[in-house]
Amino acid sequence: MKGDKFLKGIWKVIVAVFLLLPLIVTFVYSFAERWIYILPEGFTLNYYIQTLTNENFLLGIVRGLCISIIPVVITNVCILSALYLVIVHVPNLEKTVQIFCLIPSTVNGIILATSVLATYAGSGTIFANRIVMLSFIYCVFVMPMTYQGIRNSLYSVNTLGILEAAEMLGSRKIRSYVTIVIPSILPGLLNSALMCLSALFGDFAIIKIIASSQYETAQSYLYKNRHTDTQALSAAVVILLVITLIMNYTVHRSQQIKNEKRSA
Amino acid sequence: MSFIKFENISKSFDTLKVLKGINLEVKEGELLTLLGPSGCGKSTLLRCLAGLEEVGEGRIYLDGKDITYVDARQRRIGMVFQQYSLFPNMTVRKNLEFGLKIKKLPKDQIRKEVDEALQMVGLTDKDNAYPGQLSGGQQQRVALARAIVVKPKVLLLDEPLSAIDAKLRKSLQTEIRRIQKELNITTIFVTHDQDEAMIMSDRICLLKEGKLEQIGTPIEIYTEPKTTFAAGFIGNYNVFEHSEFEKITGEKNVLPVSVAIRPETITISKEKKEEANAYEFKGKVVESRSRGNVLRYVIDVNGIRIEADALFRSFSIFQDNCDVWLSVAKHDCLSVEREAV
Amino acid sequence: MIKNIKKAGGKMAFLLPLAFIVILFEWIPLADMVIRSFMDGGTFTLDNYASVFTKPVYLVAMKNSLWITLSSSVIGLIIDFFVGMALSGSKGKGKSLYLSLLNLTSTFSGVPLSIAFITVLGTSGVFVLIGRQFGIDALANYHLYSLGGMFVIYVYFQIPMGTLLMLSAFEKIRKEWKESAYLMGAGNIKFWTHIGIPVMMPAILGTFNMLFANAIASYATPYLLVNNSISLLSIKVVDMFVGDVKQRPGLGSALAIVLLVIVVVQIGLTNLCKRHFEKGAEK
């Protein structure tokens, strides 16, 4: 048993080192002054200042956040509305909605994006607009994750029971759905929404296919500047990681608060 | 001679001491119940015997041999857990075969012994079912069959019925007891349910906070509790401090010990009976509850509440707030210690 | 079902927004893509598929994609399995720190991850420099910009999510099973081969599905590192629609459909296996 534990420990350490290595090197690099040999020659914050004052990069972050937030909101609203119908009025439509929402997990982003592009690019409709196209593709892309998050939350609070109880007290179902059920599952909702958000924020493939030059996000910025200073690039990578870290931390925090509330 | 012997067993989890020097002997072929509230260390003691927990201090002997540091796989002990112990990926038959295959028994013998064990628990027709397809009671019967099919020296049952609903539990209690007697297998049974302990055991060992509180046959434990804890846990005794007891009976010069009185030894009547060798005192009915064939009254005597039972008969029905006389024989007022000695 | 829908009547409108998006941006484009893959300038043809399955460039792309996907998924799964196992046995601060690391690195993918690896193992990456300095040939001559070189990045992004999934599967292994098996004389290896792994098999296969889908659809990493020097299915598909060379949507659609079919077949196969292991979990 002792040897077993030792092996497991070694294994964990090896994998952790492997996972940490690119992170640490990037981190150290982003502070390095000049780095030609094995050790950097000094440390500086210049590359952070340079990157953080770069208008293109900052705009890229803002654009990336915008184009991620809008689809996440739209998808959440659509699925909340569809599941209301399923839970309250047509329970046997559940399978259909599930298939609707889970297909994109098989059809990957590349197929999704190229097919939409080929269908609507020259159509002359509003869908030919690349931003519109991108938003809707993102909606479909985050559908599986959003669906699962919302479904689990809705069933864990016994939605139908709450709605029926509220109806006995004289509140219409749709009203109590919006004022009671949705607020009570908000932590779970936020959790899956932030996970979707960070997935979209990290996307490069879809945006490259749909709007490569017209809509430059932070990811495209990184790609475009891949041949510039490694240090500046590393600083940008670290900044993007910190942003996703903040999103993750928010998820974590909201879950913790929820748990504390439940146990209190 | 004792078959299993625990000698001064102590055990801690981190800083928490769960077993504090337990000495206990189990005879061959008997069913001994470890009874106590949750957290009293009864399951830990059982797991120490099984070899699933390491003993902190002390020694364990099984069949004359010191097994304190013997690997659990070599102890030949069968165990039934509270629930979920069946392997979900195997059919009932495969679950039972598992231990026999490890012993490398010949195929036809495995078949025969599995059949016998299934018959014993009455599940011959379920041998190809998966655990997920069985009810909780059936699962526990399979778990029992799986534990006994390997012919262990000792059978350990760790609250095997606590996840089963009340009605089924009764029938499983008698079934376990029947099988245990049929096989004459030394068995240790862990439970927090005093009724269950009373029904099933040859002897009961009452544990409290990692210490042995009292040990004896069910009748001994029920009629002669040694401590306030035993009296409260087993028989729903009324337990009074000696000052309270003086207040109720008006009797002075009682020993400075606590007194325990079982509700069914108290008689309730409209008039004073003037019996010899009994305490009699007046009280007022506060409330009454029906418990099947028995009525339980809560009666206020000089500000102290006493519970008394009466069989459900027309002359024993009293309204709330009516005055009654209670009488209890002196020999039914047991003195009990505050702590185990 | 029809009766229920009729009863719901106007309330079916609640389904409209979702249906709108799914139909317009999933079903119609997909159907369109299937049709387009059989079309060439308005006439029905099988030429697109014929090219895909005969021209060496596409066959190589398929082969490369399948190779890097399968091997990185299998190796990733093995790593994930053992890390998950080691983590399920530990607790406390060390574990939660490890979980944070997994959560952090699970978002570390695509362009940023590839750039980080260029810094570590690229032509003038830190470890390549170290290799040169100390004469470690394997590091000094590491060629990140190749199929084998890229492999390390593929394995990297297979670890965090997969390990988290494996960990939750390990945590469903009940202590009682281990203890029962132990008391019946079974050791660790017997337990895992007879009970543990069979019980976890659906979760293991599910994790494999996810790893496979991730790897085969991976685009940013190969695009950044090898672009057109090594052909991969995902890159070829995109090239047919938005590439610098002449766009060939018919052929691109056929390639995309092939990519889709590979994923569907792979999921189908694992689901067949899954069913075999799930019979115990009925009810």
Short description:
The complex is a heterotrimer of chains A (264), B (341) and C (283). With 341 residues, chain B is of the alpha+beta class.
Mind explaining what this structure looks like?
The complex is a heterotrimer of chains A (264), B (341) and C (283). Chain A is mostly helical and 264 residues long. Chain A has helices spanning 2-31, 46-52, 55-89, 94-102, 109-120, 130-141, 143-156, 159-168, 173-184, 186-201, 205-211, 218-224, 230-263. Chain A has one domain (55-263): MetI-like (MetI-like fold, Orthogonal Bundle). Chain A starts with a helix and ends with a helix. The model of chain A has no long low-confidence stretch (mean pLDDT 87). In chain B, helix 2 (92-102) packs across helix 3 (107-121) and helix 3 (107-121) packs across helix 4. Chain B has helices spanning 42-50, 92-102, 107-121, 136-149, 166-183, 194-200, 218-223, 228-234, 242-249, and strands at residues 4-13, 16-26, 31-35, 57-62, 65-66, 77-80, 154-158, 186-191, 203-208, 211-216, 238-240, 258-261, 266-269, 278-291, 294-301, 304-311, 323-329, 334-336. In chain B, the strands form four sheets. In chain B, strands 6-7-8-3-9-10 form a six-stranded mixed β-sheet, sandwiched between helices. In chain B, strands 13-17-14-15-16 form a five-stranded antiparallel β-sheet. The mean pLDDT of chain B is 89. By secondary structure, chain B is an alpha+beta fold. With 283 residues, chain C is mostly helical. Helices cover 77% and strands 1% of the residues of chain C. Chain C is built from 14 helices and two strands, in the order H-H-E-E-H-H-H-H-H-H-H-H-H-H-H-H. The model of chain C has no long low-confidence stretch (mean pLDDT 89). Chains A and C meet through helix 1, helix 3, helix 4, helix 5 and helix 6 of A and helix 1, helix 2, helix 4, helix 5 and helix 6 of C.
